């Protein structure tokens, strides 16, 4: 039996739309309630305890209001903290987004990978644990980018993206050691796939950029009821911004290309 309730997808801003577009591809029948917590952006700069309480309360409140069949925390910075608290509060599956360390470690030929994420995510025990578990033999460079998520917001807000600032933010990802070079960069923030063309242009050499969004969409599909025959959407999409507005439908970016090699 398919379920006509929507899926609640949450991020600090537009970043989670990179996950939402993969959900749409995997399950076009699902309605989504997308929350951009722009009043609290950027999550990357928040203190851990405060961010945890804030996101758990926000998402639990929205879940009461919108009765979703599942919740997707489409944000690495929040997912590294809030999943246990949310799972304790909600009766529906909660799917998180965490840096794709495992596929990067499995696919690297040079043994040098980088995790490009917010300053919050690169400091988390959760991230250290992923590295310890999945990349013990790999040289991992953690890069906490302070302005990249805001540059992605600029791009989708149709404001110019400063190329020098972007190049400076990604430069520490590119390492050379004993004739070997970084060959995989994990996009550890859901905002970054929207800057993939700019990052490719600014990169000193070619790398594979790894986006976990397709894997998150598959995970969601695995934990909810399958699409019923001729499944009709129970409700339409909603786009909520915590700074104020509510819109029917989701923004245009579903047509923007997803990064190659992102099929984790
Ligand atoms: N999109 C969020 C993530 O995946 C972070 C952006 C922010 O700092 O708010 O980590």
Automatic annotation (TrEMBL):
The keyword Kinase is annotated on this UniProt entry: no
Gene Ontology BP annotations: cell wall organization; peptidoglycan biosynthetic process; regulation of cell shape
PROSITE patterns per UniProt: ASP_GLU_RACEMASE_1 (PS00923), ASP_GLU_RACEMASE_2 (PS00924)
Catalytic activity: L-glutamate = D-glutamate
Keyword tags: Cell shape, Cell wall biogenesis/degradation, Isomerase, Peptidoglycan synthesis
Name of the top EC class for this enzyme: isomerase
Biochemical pathway: Cell wall biogenesis; peptidoglycan biosynthesis
InterPro entries according to UniProt: Asp/Glu/hydantoin_racemase (IPR015942), Asp/Glu_race (IPR001920), Asp/Glu_racemase_AS_1 (IPR018187), Asp/Glu_racemase_AS_2 (IPR033134), Glu_race (IPR004391)
Binding site for substrate: 11-12, 43-44, 76-77, 190-191
A Pfam family this chain is assigned to: Asp_Glu_race
Catalytic residues as annotated in Swiss-Prot or TrEMBL: 75 (proton donor/acceptor), 189 (proton donor/acceptor)
Example GO molecular function: glutamate racemase activity
Function, as annotated: Provides the (R)-glutamate required for cell wall biosynthesis.
Family of this protein: Belongs to the aspartate/glutamate racemases family.
HAMAP family: Glu_racemase (MF_00258)
Name by which UniProt lists this protein: Glutamate racemase
Native source species: Stappia albiluteola
Taxonomic classification: Bacteria, Pseudomonadati, Pseudomonadota, Alphaproteobacteria, Hyphomicrobiales
